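User: Here's a chain of 222 residues. Predict its fold as tokens.
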Amino acid sequence: MARPLTSRQLEVLQSFARTKENNHISPTLEELGQSLGINRITVYGHIQALLAKGYLENLLPGASRGLELTEVGENIAFGKPRAQAPSLAPFPGEISSHLPSLPLLGRIAAGEPIEAIEDRSEVPIADLLKIADDTYLLEVKGNSMVDAHIQDGDMVVIRRDRPPRDGDIVVGVLPDETATLKRFYPQPDGGTILQPANPEMAPIYCEELEVRGVVTGVIRRY
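Assistant: Prediction complete.
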């Protein structure tokens, strides 16, 4: 199984895929550096990480254009299998325009009874879940966020491009590359407290933390 990517590694992978898609040839390290505004040595380090993690493969060692996307690298870079994605889209793809609407027929009481009035309108799923470009889903494992109404087995909607604010529920990646879903509280010393929404679990203090997105919605099946 491919290992998680840092945000910079993902950016390099997407730039590689985009350049190859446009030019029909794998880019050189110099070309990648120019497109990303970083030097060749920095690009080389990211490329080595992508090779080690299984997102790229070196088909022609020593050649300047010998790199190629693996299947998992292609799927991540393009957001979904190429057979379904004729053009490059930001990870994880432009999904909001393909989602249906559902009929909103009125309101129903969950407390005191109210008069039943049907007032039909259409609600786009993308609006309901606050879906935009760079949105993806994660399946929740565990009960650290139960008091935030996020349970084991739920699907959380994540916005990758939204900067986290104090108290947001975020996808936090620790230095050992383990990921966790917690509330985000930056500290004056530059560290971060990741706070669970479960009184039986302790908060996590992080000197270093990568945030890979902010929770904007929850999907649950009954």
